[in-house]
Amino acid sequence: MKKKFPDVDWRGAKSMRNFIVHEYFSVDNSFVWETIFETIPTFKIQINDILNSLE
């Protein structure tokens, strides 16, 4: 998947997950808020494009 869809920020998605899981009590809410409204919408479009290409 990474080679077929290099424009997707795979590392960023994994890093965010690890950050939230391992730094639960020190997560900056503004960072999470920014991710929700600025990063996830683009990521969602990319994932939908991937799913559509698999059909």
TrEMBL record:
<keyword id="KW-1277">Toxin-antitoxin system</keyword>
<dbReference type="InterPro" id="IPR008201">
    <property type="entry name" value="HepT-like"/>
</dbReference>
<dbReference type="GO" id="GO:0004540">
    <property type="term" value="F:RNA nuclease activity"/>
</dbReference>
<keyword id="KW-0547">Nucleotide-binding</keyword>
<dbReference type="GO" id="GO:0110001">
    <property type="term" value="C:toxin-antitoxin complex"/>
</dbReference>
<dbReference type="GO" id="GO:0000166">
    <property type="term" value="F:nucleotide binding"/>
</dbReference>
<dbReference type="GO" id="GO:0016787">
    <property type="term" value="F:hydrolase activity"/>
</dbReference>
<keyword id="KW-0597">Phosphoprotein</keyword>
<keyword id="KW-0378">Hydrolase</keyword>
<dbReference type="InterPro" id="IPR051813">
    <property type="entry name" value="HepT_RNase_toxin"/>
</dbReference>
<keyword id="KW-0540">Nuclease</keyword>
<dbReference type="Pfam" id="PF01934">
    <property type="entry name" value="HepT-like"/>
</dbReference>
<protein>
    <submittedName>
        <fullName>DUF86 domain-containing protein</fullName>
    </submittedName>
</protein>
